[in-house]
From TrEMBL, chain A:
This is Cytochrome b-245 light chain. Subunit of NADPH oxidase complexes that is required for the NADPH oxidase activity that generates, in various cell types, superoxide from molecular oxygen utilizing NADPH as an electron donor. Subunit of the phagocyte NADPH oxidase complex that mediates the transfer of electrons from cytosolic NADPH to O2 to produce the superoxide anion (O2(-)). In the activated complex, electrons are first transferred from NADPH to flavin adenine dinucleotide (FAD) and subsequently transferred via two heme molecules to molecular oxygen, producing superoxide through an outer-sphere reaction. Keywords: Cell membrane, Electron transport, Heme, Iron, Membrane, Metal-binding, NADP, Oxidoreductase, Transmembrane, Transmembrane helix, Transport. Belongs to the p22phox family.
From TrEMBL, chain B:
Keywords: Heme, Iron, Membrane, Metal-binding, Oxidoreductase, Transmembrane, Transmembrane helix. GO terms for biological process: defense response; superoxide anion generation. InterPro entries: Cyt_b245_heavy_chain, FAD-bd_8, FAD-bd_FR_type, Fe3_Rdtase_TM_dom, Fe_red_NAD-bd_6, FNR_nucleotide-bd, RBOH/FRE, Riboflavin_synthase-like_b-brl. This is NADPH oxidase 1. Residues 287-393 form the FAD-binding FR-type domain. Coiled coil: none annotated. It catalyses: NADPH + 2 O2 = 2 superoxide + NADP(+) + H(+). Its main location: membrane. The chain crosses the membrane at residues 12-33, 53-79, 100-121, 169-193, 205-225.
Amino acid sequence: MGKIEWAMWANEQALASGLILLTGGIVGVAGQFRGWQFAAYAVAAGVFVCLLEYPRSKRSKGTSVERTGQYCFTVCVKTFGPLTRNYYVRAFLHAAICVPGGFMLATVLGCVCLGIASLIYLAAAIRGEHWEPILPRKAETRKPPESIKKPPQNPPPRPPPEMRKKRVDDLEGAAYDNPIDVTANE
Amino acid sequence: MGNWIINNGLTSFILVVWMGINTFLFVWFYLFYDLGDQFFYTRHLLGSALAWARAPAAVLNFNCLLILLPVCRNLLSLLRGSFMCCGRTMRKQLDKNLSFHKLVAYMIALMTAVHMIAHLLNVEWYNNSRQGVYDTLSTALSNLEDTDNTTYLNPIRTTDLDPQQIPTYFAFTTIAGLTGVIITLALILIITSSMEVIRRSYFEVFWYTHHLFIIFFAGLVFHGAGRIVRSQQKTDPPHNTTFCKDHPEDWGRIPECPIPQFAGGFPQTWMWVIGPMVLYVCERLLRFIRYMQTVRYRKIVMRPSKVLELQLVKNGFKMEVGQYVFINCPAISQLEWHPFTMTSAPEEDFFSIHIRSAGDWTDKLIDIMQKLPEGAQGPKMGVDGPFGTASEDVFDYEVSMLVGAGIGVTPFASILKSIWYKFKESNPKLRTRKIYFYWLCRETHAFEWFADLLQVLEKEMEERGMGDFLTYKLYLTGWDQVHADHVKVRFDQDTDVVTGLKQKTHYGRPIWDKEFEQVRKENPTSVVGTFLCGPEALAKVLEKKCAKYSDVDPRKTKFYFNKENF
């Protein structure tokens, strides 16, 4: 089990808890239960947890699978910087959020589930994991190197025309040394 | 359309039957609790919420019965064996067991949600009745206690706690409430750890957490033991509800209205789930017994590209073509079982698997095997199986077109070997006279062993003068400039530069029109069976081509498409 990133499971659990908290809250408010104020809180808390947990983190190893349409949520969550990056903060935040849910039966299940998610986040934080946003990669454009764009400015080195004429009668004397070195650049 | 019915008809039928039973149970129990006279007073306290809680409970009973069955793979194998007479379509349904398991799980989750919400309402309204918030009848009903001559209706008896906390207190101090909370929690943990993301990346978390189902079933069986769903019993003289409901203060004082008596229903869930629970225990026992059976290594071979071939021998092991086994190696992990398609033919006296490096379990296994001294036995292995629908239809066609894409080529190793063995023994079951094999892959890495197999077959066939029994074509769909250059340089060599085979490698995807034309030209009067193990998109293409190139005239070529889920 060495390669597990606990945060991934904590994320699924927290998202599920958010939904359960929300559902319990809606039932409590709609049914006008005793302590419906706690249910109203649970609705707000449930929505908040869902929004916070919807964007998945980028995995440290392997491919990350985004949730549909999570980009806008990623941007929002990213703006809180270290508050959302650090999993200790999340663990304590979830632990704190879940407490008022325990005061009413309709929200108790959401409270316990969120508490469990908080524990898993704590485990993730202890192992040094943190939240990374999944951002679309900018396509790298390769510019061709500068040197191949410009055509040569100078003609190749040649001796003057009268020396270039072929002198068939005196081949020995026709040989010459190039005034400019034509060997490869060292 | 006809093809869809043949391929998916039975599955759809089973799903319709399953939904039908669910709907029937829901409606039946809903009406039972919503219309039954014995629940008249209960309905006065709770309205329809009781029926809304009991109806999903019935559906839950049924689905909790079903959920254990598709994962008893040995039981399914047994069924498959005894279905040999009933046709392949029946047996193919058994291969979709995991999909069914997930579907039933979704239904359980949905019904749990409905059941829980209905009971939240019930508990709240029971509490209000007990507090005397509603009319006199409700208060009178709630006041009934368990004494010498009265029985209670309202399961909430406490009044001396903070009224807001009584529901929570009730939930955690009654058997039904406590077991309900525990098993719902277990269910939620099971579901969150079974999400595809977690399952594919950290199988151990999924597998270990899934064992919470033991707590789930234990709690489920005891969930009804408290008998808090109360129905009205017959009294002597009878209690006339229509009249007495308006005179609660006269109960016990006038002859028409003796005090109404209530009793809880007998818990029934255990009757539904005990059968599958026993079957599942037997299944785990059987897996354990199979695991303890000795598996001997006949040969261990390291193939190129980190592929390990294991040839194993096990007493009483019988396989068919295209089946798979589960392998467990306690030296690496006590609890992990991994599936591998077998690559040997049933005619051989051993079975072989080719294991590719694809994760930490396979990596460790390959590592252990590489460090073994020459000729030594490997670590202890447990083998469970074989599982899977055998693909025996392959032998029934005179001409077969076999298409294997990527890793889908593995079952064809088994099939090709078996065909060749049957041909050599002149097995009458084999009607095949000609095989066209199309191998599509992005690159041949990790499949060199298959190329070796083709080479061996190629050689044997040439020796017997049967060179045209097997025609195979390899299509490399992931070629690049390096490949192209390689090929250009070695164009005139006899064997292929990539595979070493006599038949040259093609680059890019096959042009199916050309292939089907060629097959039709070379076999003008035969029935051709097309078999695919590969992606869905390719299945659609091949299906269309089969239809296009089949001739209505029975004397001419006909193509039949079989998509196998090996």
